[in-house]
Amino acid sequence: MKEKLFILLFFCVCTTLAFSQARVILPDSTQITSDPDSVDLLPRQLAQQEPVHDHDHDHDHDHDVPFDTVNLVLPAATVWHVHPRSGDRIIMPMDTLKHNFQQTTVPEGYSVGGGYLGPIGSPFISKIFSERDEAGQFPFYKAYRPYNKTPEQQLFYNTHVPYAKLDYQTAGNRRLREQRFKALLTTNFNKQLNVGLEGDLINAKGFYSSQENKHNHWSLFGNYVSDRLEAHLFASTSTIRQFENGGITDDRFIREPESVGEQFTSTDIPVRFANTWNKVGTKQLFFSGKYNLGYSSRQDSLARAEFVPVASVIFTSRYTGQDRRFLSHDTANVTIDGQTMQRIDQFYPNRYYNTAVDDSVTFSSFKNTFALSLREGFQPWVKFGLTGYIEHELRNFSMLDSVNGVIDRSKHRESAVFIGGILNKQQGENLRFNLQANLGVLGANLGETKLSGEVETGFNIAGKRTTLSANAYIKNIKPTYLQEHYRSKYFWWNRNFGDIRRVFVGGRLHIPFTNTTLSAGVENVQNYIFFDMDRNIAQHSPNVQVLTARVDQNLRLGVFNWDNQVVYQTSSNQDVIPVPTLSVYSNMYLKALIVNELTLQFGVDAHYHTNYFAPGYEPALLQFYNQNEKKIGNYPIATVYANMHLKQTRFFVMYYNAAAMVLKPREYFSLPNYPVNPTVIKLGLSVDLHN
Question: How far apart are CA 532 and CA 538, in angstroms?
């Protein structure tokens, strides 16, 4: 580890010296909202607020709020997302967080309550129901939600000079080491053209047997933005290799290790599988082109003519190719109840072929969208923007099949045509809104409907803007092909599910005067599709209601800080949608400027949720399922940490899972049979290469 850290630091120093004459002006954080989920997306005065770290959450683009930024006066370095249908730019804060950096490097940092397999990079599910995405056409990619990179998540840049950023984190010794390295390099070739390259590499050997995973994510992106033309390009390739152990077989090794009666390490704990793994690959290509129609306006004869966009013509094209393979060499013969079978077969009641496990599924999608928009504010009487679009998607699937008793492959092709519109008002302080409608008119998604709306108003308390927003949606969603049809060695089904109906109403109040955010929402779901206790896909026809209420409260007293996030949930049917009643993230720390520009943050934080039947994880499906055998919770996953920030460098040291040293019995399970990593020291470093 010392050699790698030395090489990394040497590279950082050399690159910093190479850019010693360069300068990047970061956006003023008081001008940009910190909440990417809010309709509050335009720069405005939010005093004393720092930008937050973007956790790369995969938000459904139907909830993104598009707006025109052509006429905005933007900072010298700006960052934005692109709406995949309208081509609008959504301004985002840059990652300039000076504190809580350590929390962005652990899986718990992706949600107040989350479940995962132990190592960083392993499949993840949020225990907060409102944070879960809808089922995609390729559900296996969804299991790695925090680590995925899609066009909706990609950040595009505009900088005056080259900008680079390196992140590195590590934990454990050489045999068990867990590492992640992220690198970003982007530069403008002129005022309009920017090109960038980004990489994200994870290599976690795992603190438990047969748990290693490797991620290789690479993306190339660029944008050209002028008065008339706005173009964005994103290309990426990703491979994920996840070794599966099926979970540990005896919880005593975690809860009461003294009762085992012998010395052992975490890798000695028996697990269900060996020599078994999932592999997921993804290739993506996205292009968005937007041509603005308008006129030149001149205030007086001495002023430079300013372009005023009136309308836009938009074309977006997106290709996605994905594959998933599940293999096992855990094929030693065993005899169970007088029947001889391969060792891994004993964990599954059904076997649809007799050779070693080798399941594979491929998926491709080619989507094109054509849109026309009328721009908001080109005349004083034009109080809103309007966008209409038509979209066509062609999908291809391939998987195992049985033809006359012989295992072969089958292919399926389908297409869908959607029409939709966006009506929004994003200028002015008193009222802003965004209304979206999407309707499937032809093909596999005929009759699918999505209607959503968001509205926001604001007022001042003690000179600071308090915002009040509400959002709602009504959706009638067609089941996906892989929800209704799937074939593998252990699971084989053909179903005819009904449309999923979802209705949600919620609101949010942000009070900067007291550093308080209150939010609440209730959702009614009918025909909910899930994996039941037998790990078979099922549909629950009656209605299920889920109520969620959340309070974010940050307290300050000199150098003492106490940040809290509390989420209350209740489900009308815990067998169908199980949720913990209470989920809490609490972070207590001291933060002070030590020497010149050195900021020190020292504290302890913890994630906690009440006991409930948390979802189980099924490796053969790469999915989470409902179970009623083991409850998880009532135990804090705590860390003791020190963060430091010096000019362009952030670094931390963390003692992870510290509660296990003092609390007994130890209950540090994230999911049934899947404990989090044992106590370990973790280090991290982030360097912005600009001056």
Answer: 6
The maximal CA–CA distance of the chain, rounded, in angstroms, is 96
Residue type, 506: G
Q: Do residues 644 and 650 touch, judged by C-beta distance below 8 A?
A: yes
**Quick one: tokens of 387?**
């966008």
pLDDT digits (tens, 9 = 90+) for 284-338: 999 999 999 988 877 666 667 788 889 999 999 999 999 999 999 998 989 888 8
Give all strands (DSSP E) within 176-275, no chain letters: 178-188, 193-204, 213-225, 229-243
Residue that has been written with the tokens 């004869």 in this structure: 301
Which of 607, 628, 663 minimizes the C-alpha distance to 256?
A: 663
Q: Could you give the CA distance from residue 125 to residue 113 in angstroms, rounded to a whole number?
A: 9
Sheet hosting strand 89-92, strand order edge to edge: 89-92, 78-82, 156-158
| Rounded-to-10 torsion of CA 281, 367, 184, 599 | -100
List Cβ neighbours of 411 (8 Å cut-off, separation of 6 or more).
396, 397, 398
Whose CA is closest to 50, among 26, 69, 73, 67? Answer: 26
Per-residue pLDDT tens over the stretch 225-238 = 999 999 999 999 99
Non-local (6+) Cβ contacts of 603 within 8 A are: 561, 587, 588, 589, 590, 640, 641
Q: How far apart are CA 531 and CA 487, in angstroms?
A: 15
Query: What are φ and ψ of residue 535, in 5° steps?
Result: 65, 25
**Contact present, 685 and 167 (Cβ < 8 Å):** yes
3-state DSSP assignment of residue 440: strand
Query: What global pTM score does this model have?
Result: 0.87
Contacts of 684 (CB under 8 A, 6+ apart): 101, 102, 105, 167, 168, 169, 170, 650, 651, 652, 654
Q: Is 353 within 8 Å of 406 (Cβ atoms)? A: no
**CA-to-CA distance for 102 and 643, rounded, in angstroms?**
7
